[in-house]
Amino acid sequence: MNDEALKQDIELADAAEACVKQLEGEFGTASSCTLSREELEEVRKGNATAFSLSPVQVPRKSLAEACGRLLQVLLEDSGEAIDGETRAALRDLDWEAALPRNAEALAGKAPEELLEQIAESDVPGLSAEATGLYVIPVVTLAIRVFVSRAAREASSLLASLESEEKRFAFSSSCPICGGTPSIARISETVSHGSQRRLVCGTCGGTWLWYRIGCPSCGSRDSKNFEYISREGEDGEALYVCHQCGHILPTLFRKDDIEDDPVTAADTVRLQALEDEYLETKA
Asked: What tens digit of pLDDT does each residue of 148-166 get?
């Protein structure tokens, strides 16, 4: 990816992130995740997710409206990246009809299941590829509007319990919503030294993970791993597992997690680095 294309992708991601924050102010301010100590212990043990025990209310109509407004940002700022036929189909998309009937029940309880249902459905006028490229990311961001505050609360509660009891979940999937980690953060903490935390690609929740280990295949043999980065850029890298081929985009930060959150621009730059790496392996 050339510099101009990367700049355009970052601008689009920044616009989408700004839209999410605006929508959070309108729709997501009431979201919360209330868990007892016993329930947190079940989450830590991997017997339940935080959202399965304390679901976030996500009204179907509001979710559809958030999807529509986020899609509008995508269409306005994507330039010629979307072909005319796909653009027309997206513009005419009826979100209330496109969302599964159980969307309201799943969005704040098992969002990954909702996304899987949409990916397997026939969205009018769109191919399966277009659904994956445009519809799924829009719905994911729309879900984030409603659940991100609750995900932060639950992540903080789980981290406090683990720190207090010195027992950690080390889950390969998100203990908050059941989603898949999209990025890792390695940062220096005040009292626990250098830590790796995984960041959920669905709800934005974070949780502790091994400094050496693959969340995909479970390997913890240091000989199986390699960091790939651009020359002169030591803040971003790909954590590549040579046992299963899994790639975990990774950010290195000096500050604690909450003080320096993952941004849309971070995600775009790491995706560009992954694309470049995969091209060399093709």
From this structure: 999 999 999 998 888 887 7
